[in-house]
TrEMBL record:
It is an enzyme of class 3 (hydrolase). It is found in: Cytoplasm. Belongs to the PRA-CH family. Signal peptide: none annotated. The gene is hisI. Coiled coil: none annotated. Homodimer. This is Phosphoribosyl-AMP cyclohydrolase. It comes from the Bacteria.
Length: 142
């Protein structure tokens, strides 16, 4: 057993098939995927993947998720330029959650923050503990 990363993209069709076979998608065909910055351990975001988005991620090395609101594939950074290069991918012990070790180019959150996890209990309220690094308008032109 080795914890040496298997580079993504995964060039072997057999290895891609083994990953897909190990994943237990839910009744809607989805599995949660957590994106973590590979070198700092910072948890950036959680999104959903289906078999098609997982296969694309394995083939290209670029994070591709399934957008439940859009009902289709969501290639991270496609509109914002905030791309996630996947350096390694881990399947948890039950096969029902994925961990993507990524190199995040820019911010991960649509609010302009580095991480989507920027709210925390402070005193009697839920407070922002990280400020936006970039305006959402500049990312999405809204």
């Amino acid at each position: 057993m080795s914890d040496t990363p298997s580079p993504v993209p995964v060039s072997s069709a057999a290895a891609r098939a083994a990953v897909l076979a190990a994943v237990h998608f839910d009744a809607k065909g989805l599995v949660p995927a957590i994106a973590q910055q590979h070198d700092t351990g910072e948890v950036l975001m959680m999104a959903w993947m289906n078999a098609e988005s997982l296969a694309e991620t394995l083939e290209t090395g670029r994070a591709c998720y399934y957008s439940r609101s859009r009902g289709g594939l969501w290639r991270k950074g496609e509109t914002s330029g905030q791309v996630q290069k996947v350096l390694d991918l881990r399947v948890d012990c039950d096969g029902d959650t994925l961990l993507l070790l990524v190199d995040q180019l820019g911010v991960a959150c649509h609010t302009g923050r580095r991480s989507c996890f920027f709210l925390a209990p402070r005193g009697d309220e839920l407070a922002e503990v990280a400020a936006p690094l970039v305006s959402p308008q500049s990312l999405y032109g809204a």
